[in-house]
Amino acid sequence: MNHILSHQPIKTDSSNRFASNTMTERFPRIIHSILQANPTYPGRVQKRLEELSRKMVENGEIPPLVDSAFDQDQWNCLYRSCQGQGWQETEWFFAETYAYRLLLEACEYFSTLKDPFGPLKERELEQGTAFWPLLAEAETRKNGGAPGTPRSLKEELLQALLLSLWGNRADLSFSGGTALDTTGEIPETLVAQDDQPALDHLLGLQGASEEAESSGREIHLVLDNTGSELAADVALSLTLRRLLKVPLVLHLKLYPTYVSDTTVADLHRFLDVAATHPREEVRSRASAFGAALKEGAIRLAPDDFWCQPLFLADAPPRITRALDRAGMVIFKGDLNYRRAMHDTIWPPGTPLAEAIRCRHEAPWLFLRTIKSDCLAGVSRERCQALQAEDPSWRTSGTRGLLQLASD
Ligand SMILES: O=P(O)(O)OC[C@@]1(O)O[C@H](CO)[C@@H](O)[C@@H]1O
């Protein structure tokens, strides 16, 4: 069995093969890729990274942060939950998230602001393929109503949501990114699809003008990876603005983490490269997004909460207040799903509300390519059928979900 059902967060021990493998093999491979991508790191940085990798492989004790930093006290408080434990015998959500913070410390990020994942992110942008979702959005916008394109506002919204969902496959902490599926149809590879209630709610937010902001009709989008996924999320943002005329708030990571998770710097770098793309559609979409940022119709909300091993039920008031102001919150990706569902493998059929364990004023929509075992809200029958079809369905990144949690 790859995983054991329980009401507790996934652990990095033998009870969960994928989590255990993350700490013994996958994260050490990420450290190795960072060393290769940053050949000019001084010896002391290389040594710290190699030591971090060795400790993980050998199930060494998880170390505290040692360099002073703005968030050191908070992390040392969080660290107490695992003090004395080894990397292969603790909660996965904490271990993995903290490992990325230790990686930043080893790379002296806060004294150089040099993103250790920068070369990897840049490589994806240089390929040019990262901008493909913007071409798909431009195509839909141009051909609206033509044969084979969305005929209704609902269909167009759904196509943008699915483009964003499958954009989550391109995640450098999981793979080098794969082609996006933008057929717009709901493939059978979605294990849950609350598309109709989600679309009905989104349509109810339609605002004729910007007064929508005061009436709690903002749509909040909690971003995930930069590159291809960000392109799909920029396309989704532009579609939501064009069709619903609602203001958007994009939540991002305050500093680099999980290899390709989007920071404000990443978003501006993405727009700068898109502005010089050979395809006019990409340049015009980047320009439209930049204009929406400039006029305040799209706002950015970076926060280090999204870099910490805290579940949404334990979010600080500044985050809760912001999300409760929304007309809908759209959470992108696997990590944010884990954050909402207490990174637990809930018994099949467990309702989302039971897994989330906190009240939220706005409906929460999850657009996730499934890359880890955490799951809720999927029936026993569906789980059994998926398991019979492909035992790796929970971690292969080939299944997705579009789930709506409304209190
Ligand atoms: O949030 P994303 O980028 O979609 O996925 C990130 C992630 O969930 O994917 C891996 C699981 O395969 C984890 O190591 C990591 O937390």
From TrEMBL:
One GO biological process term: DNA damage response
Cofactor: Mn(2+)
Keyword list, A-Z: Hydrolase, Manganese, Metal-binding
Catalytic activity, as annotated: beta-D-fructose 6-phosphate = dihydroxyacetone + D-glyceraldehyde 3-phosphate; beta-D-fructose 1-phosphate + H2O = D-fructose + phosphate
Nucleus found in the keyword field: no
GO molecular function, one term: metal ion binding
Domain Damage-control phosphatase ARMT1-like metal-binding: from-to ranges: 44-380
Transmembrane regions: none
InterPro entries per record: ARMT-1-like_metal-bd_sf (IPR036075), ARMT1 (IPR039763), ARMT1-like_metal-bd (IPR002791)
One Pfam family linked to the record: ARMT1-like_dom
Domain of life (superkingdom): Bacteria
Similarity-based family: Belongs to the damage-control phosphatase family. Sugar phosphate phosphatase III subfamily.
The protein's name: Damage-control phosphatase ARMT1-like metal-binding domain-containing protein
Species whose genome carries this gene: Alkalispirochaeta americana
